[in-house]
Prior knowledge:
This protein is mainly β. 15% of the residues lie in helices and 51% in strands. Keywords: Signal.
Amino acid sequence: MRSLITAGVFALAAGLSATPAAPATAEAEATITCHGGSFNASLNPGVTFKRATSQITGNGDLGVCSSEPNKKITGGVFRIVASGTGNCPSPLTAGYGRLQIAWNDGTTTEAPQASIRLEATRFSIEAGNMRLSGRATTSPIELATKCVTSGLTSYTGAVDIFTLGAN
């Protein structure tokens, strides 16, 4: 009887060790910090003084990145597709969407439910343990003019900091 139990334990251990490990992603690599970079977004329909919902499509780069556990990560690009509600003067839009990051080492990070907030002077994107913040580079005069005329359909900004894994 003892030999059957021992054989079963060895068979179970052998089966577990033969199971392939899950593929690595940047999320599994602990903390990543980035500084610099840029952000460009389009809003449709354009934001005016009347509160409404807009579709947001944004792209950007994360600037210079570092990760202690994964020194191969030195940069990345991101894309967010979201829907948000807002009006001029601020918040221009606040909502939720899908965030995708492609790292320079070929790994990716995705967040299906990221929050985005665009304001006249600042913007932020957050999802789980990811935080991105930056400042608008479109002048307040240009923002106000677009709000009064055809509506604000584009937004540009500079990424101040992005963190993944740091709380």
